[in-house]
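Onboarding guide, step 5: your first structure request.
Type a short instruction followed by the sequence, for example:

Predict the 3D structure of this protein.
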Amino acid sequence: MRLALLLYKYFPFGGMQRDFRRLVEELQGLGHHCRIYFIEWEGDPLPGAELRRVRARATSRHRRNERFLARVQADLAADPVDGVIGFNRMPGLDVYFAADPCYVDMALEVRGRLYRRGGRFRHFAAAERAVFGPESGTHILLISETERAKFERHYQTPPERMHLLPPGVSPDRRRPEDAAPRRRALRAELGIDPQEYVLLFLGSGFVTKGLGRAIRALARVRNDQPSISPRLLVAGKDRQRSFHHMARRLGVGANTTFLGGRDDVPDLLLAADVLVHPALAEAGGTVLLEALVAGLPVVTTDVCGYAHHIAAGRAGIVLPSPFSQDAFDRAVLRMLDGVYRAECRRSGLLYAEMTDLYSMHSTGARLIERLIRQKSGAAR
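The system replies with structure tokens like these:
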């Protein structure tokens, strides 16, 4: 089959983008031709895929998105495909990969009334309704039961259109036999003492994933435990300036290291002592499972779709909503206990052996194949 895959921006360090790449590779492995429409592309091209860049400049993001969709739809009318798969919410999709949390729910819970009167809100809310509304024919690939409940509550999406995928942790994230020497090597490269307490924040989207909360917790550890010199490693691509200012204002500028996007995530997971992921909203949170399978204890929030795996695997601490900075700080302080961290590591690794945390992309590709064939059969 000829498939069109749509996303606004590809860059190699985003969680959704990594899922996108692996799904394309799985679809290609099944023999399908993949045509990719995008506005921005950073990093290596996908071998064998047909890349079509869409020029969609505008003064606002929602105007840019509207121009992108109009030009893609015109191109598809001139050069049709068998199915259209979207990785951002937009009208006209056959299948949508739901990597992002429910937009309307977040706007109601986190944003103010004035925000919901603007053009940005109207655009993104309409795009979400075009996918999830009961009148839509789009099938949705979900990565979280938590988000399913939100979509059902806001849109009454028919359950037969929502398909829950298993997680898709990359095999290279699993704890290797040579974990100890790799840990020592990367810590030495980064100038980290063997006994230094290292928190890892991993992911793009610093505001939504709670970097400010993590920096405040770092300051609390430093103030409450002056004999300890904690370090926060921040790996991911996003705007850093305001967080640099925050770290300096709280007295932990020298304790906070911004690494940018990294290709050595497996070694970062081994080098750290705790993953901190105090997200405000997170549809899945693959990074939580990457830490779990690497044997890295986790402190996170229950808004993350995959947080229940951390709780079920007793691989760390999951904080309930509503968020409390004090509770988060105390959880990070609890992780100073090396015996407790070792218990979390052992329990998490056992859970990783007994649970399917790995087959998202092969399962998703076969499901896309089946759904597009069903649509084509119905059309005939």
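Each response can be followed by summary notes, for example: The chain is about 45% helix and 15% strand.
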